[in-house]
């Protein structure tokens, strides 16, 4: 829960109940470009995580939810596969004030394919989407994720080497050095060439971040590029990764993201 002070969102201390810290999450999934058909599954999965782990989840595609007063009700705002220009200038201002007052942000998958003309948001998410390898008969490549930092709530449940199918994103810039990279995908285990030029754009190289976190402008940011398909939201490991990231961004678990790597 967050409180309103002087018109700004100020985090309140989360209360513990039954061994779980309570918090509130707003899931925002508006799209103005490509729309992932996994969004309903993602919303449902986060609602189930909330029910099982004692936190409140509201979901909306209405950008009018981005006001000072409404955002003050939430400890973390989740951008779930948003795309394109989803907030106007007034709504952007409210979200910036929310983060500056100590709010949390969690971006999932296409959250990095959002608001390319809003430089502040690009800093918040950490990097913008560039492209990804294609699929064959709706099947993406299986690759190995190397979990680099297993000390956080988002990574403790994960194996050090995690094999999974995904739409593996390449980013316009590598955020390493400005964020704490939690996991990277091993380009030796798949073909990382994206579609943005005819011959296929290169991947990200030997250190290809796929999940990260960092403090930003007074708030907390967590991002994972995983979560393209609806079926992925039935994967217990992905759900554990997302749950831990939400708890970190909400401020009810140790954040531990202040040192870039």
UniProtKB/TrEMBL annotation:
<dbReference type="Pfam" id="PF06283">
    <property type="entry name" value="ThuA"/>
</dbReference>
<keyword id="KW-0732">Signal</keyword>
<protein>
    <submittedName>
        <fullName>ThuA domain-containing protein</fullName>
    </submittedName>
</protein>
<dbReference type="InterPro" id="IPR029062">
    <property type="entry name" value="Class_I_gatase-like"/>
</dbReference>
<feature type="signal peptide">
    <location>
        <begin position="1"/>
        <end position="16"/>
    </location>
</feature>
<feature type="domain" description="ThuA-like">
    <location>
        <begin position="25"/>
        <end position="247"/>
    </location>
</feature>
<dbReference type="InterPro" id="IPR029010">
    <property type="entry name" value="ThuA-like"/>
</dbReference>
């Amino acid at each position: 829960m967050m409180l309103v002070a002087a018109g700004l969102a100020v985090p309140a201390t989360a209360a513990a109940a039954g061994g779980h810290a309570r918090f509130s999450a707003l899931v925002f999934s508006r799209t103005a470009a490509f729309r992932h058909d996994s969004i309903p599954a993602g919303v449902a999965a986060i609602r189930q995580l909330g029910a099982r782990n004692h936190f409140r989840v509201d979901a909306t595609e209405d950008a009018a939810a981005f006001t000072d007063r409404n955002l003050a009700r939430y400890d973390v705002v989740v951008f779930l596969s948003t795309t394109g220009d989803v907030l106007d200038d007034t709504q952007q201002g409210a979200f910036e004030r929310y983060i500056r007052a100590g709010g949390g942000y969690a971006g999932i998958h296409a959250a990095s394919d959002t608001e390319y003309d809003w430089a502040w948001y690009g800093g918040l998410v950490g990097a913008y989407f560039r492209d990804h390898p294609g699929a064959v008969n709706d099947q993406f490549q299986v690759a190995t994720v190397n979990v680099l930092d297993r000390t956080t709530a988002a990574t403790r449940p994960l194996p050090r080497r995690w094999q999974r199918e995904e739409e593996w994103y390449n980013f316009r810039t590598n955020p390493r050095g400005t964020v704490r990279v939690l996991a990277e995908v091993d380009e030796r285990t798949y073909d990382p060439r994206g579609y943005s030029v005819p011959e296929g754009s290169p991947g990200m190289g030997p250190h290809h971040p796929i999940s990260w976190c960092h403090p930003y402008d007074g708030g907390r940011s967590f991002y994972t590029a995983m979560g393209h398909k609806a079926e992925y939201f039935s994967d217990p490991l992905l759900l554990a990764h997302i749950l831990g990231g939400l708890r970190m961004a909400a401020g009810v678990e140790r954040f531990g993201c202040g040192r870039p790597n």
